[in-house]
């Protein structure tokens, strides 16, 4: 017995061809996208920055490298700190540029960066750069940048040049104060010496009584004093 399907259940030729081709096409190429917040405000020279990433591919990344860059223009940006993550090492702590220190913690789909040792003049635009090191293919992407605003702390230490200048001014002031003190001591010594000489003279001549001339009248002169 021949069995026929109703026209509504039969597939068009184009749909059947599409299904056969879709099963034979390779999967989409891996891709990487990095996002980060627009603005973050620091506190006491420290700021926390979340660098989120989205990876599409057959396998999850097993080794990532994260790099923090500073600068308004991507062409002239400065590397602040960098380190790598693996499944066995999900955190890091490295020394950055100058007094800046970076700590990182790998989380699901993001890297938590804590940057410390910042000052008011470190306020700038910072970029998160994430690289997929393994498995292949190698991928590298940047975020759109985050404005890190670092308020100037009133008790923060002065820059080295300003500290040197203040030390120089302090030395000059100390030298002037020493010179003034030496002059005052010299004047006091002179005055003390003069007073001492006056007292010595007074003691030397103070015991001499006034001489009184007396006449016994033999020469016709009266007594005079």
Automatic annotation (TrEMBL):
It comes from Oncorhynchus tshawytscha (Chinook salmon). This is CD28 molecule. The chain crosses the membrane at residues 174-196. Residues 45-149 form the Immunoglobulin V-set domain. GO terms for biological process: regulation of T cell proliferation; T cell receptor signaling pathway. Keywords: Disulfide bond, Glycoprotein, Immunoglobulin domain, Membrane, Signal, Transmembrane, Transmembrane helix. The gene is LOC112246177. GO terms for cellular component: external side of plasma membrane. It is found in: Membrane. InterPro entries: CTLA4/CD28, Ig-like_dom_sf, Ig-like_fold, Ig_V-set. It comes from the Eukaryota. Gene3D superfamilies: Immunoglobulins (2.60.40.10). It is a single-pass type I membrane protein.
